[in-house]
Design goal:
This protein is mainly β and 133 residues long. The protein has 1 helix and 10 strands.
Length: 133
């Protein structure tokens, strides 16, 4: 396993076994879920992703954006491009243009799916995020 590559837990013998579960506390999760919703014109929705993020997708001045908020209060924003897709509305982050990069799909049930590239080059459904509003 590669360190800092997305594991959900770590273990070490120092010399006793130390197990550390990574992720949000209940308070951190509640804080993310209760953040006020941004609803600018072109707002498509907000979703809670159980790895510690809350994302919102919206369109401003003809351009799609994904705002990501974290439990520590920090946030980031990525420009998105919408691509053709049969299973819903597919979005890719513009700064990552390789076809092998991750992408997001708002499916017919308004869930936000996160698709990731597998070792064999195919994409697999990595997570499905819960829609908040």
């Amino acid at each position: 396993m590669i360190i800092d590559s997305g594991a959900w837990a770590t273990t070490h013998f120092n010399p006793e076994l130390e197990v550390r579960i990574l992720g949000l506390t209940t308070d951190e999760e509640n804080k993310l879920r209760q953040l006020p919703s941004m609803k600018p014109p072109g707002y498509l929705g907000s979703w809670f992703i159980d790895d510690g993020r809350r994302v919102s997708i919206y369109k401003k001045n003809g351009v799609f954006y994904m705002q990501t908020m974290f439990s520590d209060g920090s946030k980031g924003e990525d420009q998105l491009a919408e691509k053709q897709y049969e299973g819903g509305r597919k979005f890719v982050r513009v700064k990552y243009s390789d076809p092998m990069d991750d992408f997001y799909v708002i499916d017919q049930d308004s869930n936000l799916q996160h698709w990731s590239s597998d070792v064999d080059g195919t994409h697999v459904l990595y997570k499905t995020a819960e829609k908040l509003n």
